Amino acid sequence: MVKTILFILHGFLALSAVLCAKVTVGGKDFTLISRYASRENVLEIDEFDYFVSVVPNTWTGADNECRFFFGENATLVAIESVEEWNFLKIKLENFGSLYWTGGMYNPQISAFVWSAHNLPLPPFAPWDQGHPAPNPNALHRVSIAHWSRHQAFWRTAAYTESIPYICEVQRATQPVDCYSENDLIIVLDSSGSIGAANYTTALSFVDRLASAFTVHEPSRLSFIIFSDIAQLQISLTNSYTREFISRTILATQYLDSGTSTWLGIDKAIEQFDLSPRDVPLNMVILTDGMSNDGDLTVAAAQRAVTRGIRMFSVGITDATNPAELLTLAGGVRDRVFSSETFDDLVNLLAPVSITVCTKN
Ligand SMILES: *[C@@H]1O[C@H](CO)[C@@H](O)[C@H](O)[C@H]1NC(C)=O
Ligand SMILES: *[C@@H]1O[C@H](CO)[C@@H](O)[C@H](O)[C@H]1NC(C)=O
After folding, report:
1. Which residue among 4, 7, 67, 72 is best mutated to probe the pocket of ligand 1, counting the most ligand atoms within 8 A of its Cβ?
2. Residue 129: HSE in the Cβ half-sphere, 13 Å Cα cutoff
3. Nearest-CA residue for atom 6 of ligand 1
4. What average pLDDT does range 96-121 have in this prediction?
5. Ligand 1 within 6 A of CB of 72
6. What is the best residue among 189, 190, 194, 198 to mutate for testing ligand 2's pocket, by most ligand atoms within 8 Å of CB?
7. DSSP codes of every residue in 249-298
8. 91 contacts 20 by C-beta, under 8 angstroms
């Protein structure tokens, strides 16, 4: 039933950028606010669905109802960008003043995080005066106090308070912005087997993944491609604008030759060595096949692990070798990702960005 309602609404949504509609799900009334946004130069379209319930509930009750009514991937809203916050502020105008978000205090890392993925709230968090609570504890949650689009703030509140709430259906086709400080080097296979069209799709994935890590000023990003040679496209720095980084990634030429994966890894290690920092060092390697020399690749991956680099591998198509992907991920299974086709790569944006951003 839920699926049917959502499906029909999506039919309408294709026509308009933003839609508000009353939906009754399981006998409860929600207002659906949807937003379709497409990024410049990129074919994929991001979809966001928010469901606002004006019927009050405790934080725990609201959290359960989001999943119960909208499926396993629904959570209380996680506000990850200034753009998303500005959008919500305008859209909430007609509903009331207090809402639960998915924000909660995580005592283990002494920070407020979004329940959807346990990643920290963004630094732009517009806390109300006297908030967040000076000595937060595990019972504290984050609510929105909304008086108008110009006067809207975040507050801490006890999870037992009963207020309206906003559910968000998580889309896997968008990355999750990372607000913990780290260095990331993305290493992309540019070998002949990929083909020019699929290479463009891979660059678009890299661009969108990179955008999740360039949003937080202290973090640094680098981009390297490899074929018979390894080529540095963007050096490890935080001194370029996001626009420049995006443009550079999307304009990357196609090398169209062999698969010397070890050269890409060594080039990345070299970038880390040139300006070492005491933050998590991450390397994400994307490849569509086996490297031309397994031994050299294993040795390079081991050098990176020994250097303290957290390795992640993304295998595209079934021409990849599972054992090599595991090696490229430093032997850690949770850091291996794969996609059957290039077009399905977008489904890895959320899982990869969340896993890289998580500190463990
Ligand atoms: C929930 O997300 C997972 C991971 O992205 C996906 O595989 C699954 O199909 C999603 N479930 C629904 C009901 O959309
Ligand atoms: C692109 O990749 C798909 C697999 O995702 C493959 O079936 C297709 O042949 C590739 N296209 C080209 C032009 O190589």
Report:
1. 72
2. 1
3. 172
4. 94
5. yes
6. 198
7. HHTPPP--B---HHHHHHHHHHHHHHS--SS-EEEEEEESS--S-HHHHH
8. yes
Which ligand approaches the C-alpha of residue 6 most closely? 1
pLDDT, tens digit, 9 for 90 and up, residues 65-75: 999 888 888 99
Distance 255 CA to ligand 2 centre (A): 17
Whether 73 is in the pocket of ligand 1, judged by its Cβ within 6 Å, is yes
User: Residue 59: its pLDDT value, please?
Assistant: 98
Q: What residues contact 199, with CB distance under 8 A and at least 6 apart?
A: 190, 254
pLDDT at 29: 79
Asked if residue 321 lies in contact with residue 355, where contact means CB atoms within 8 angstroms, the answer is: no
Q: How do residues 225-282 score in pLDDT, each as one tens digit?
A: 999 999 999 999 999 999 999 999 999 999 999 999 999 999 999 999 999 999 999 9
Atom of ligand 2 nearest to the CA of 341: 5
Label residue 306 left, alpha or beta by phi (over 0 means left) and psi (-120 to 50 means alpha): alpha
Closest ligand, as measured to the CA of 197: 2
Residue whose pair of structure tokens reads 């500005």 in the numeric block: 86
pTM of the model: 0.78
Q: Exposure of 339 by Cβ count < 10 A (0-12 exposed, 13-18 middle, 19+ buried)?
A: buried
DSSP assignment of 254-265 equals: P--B---HHHHH
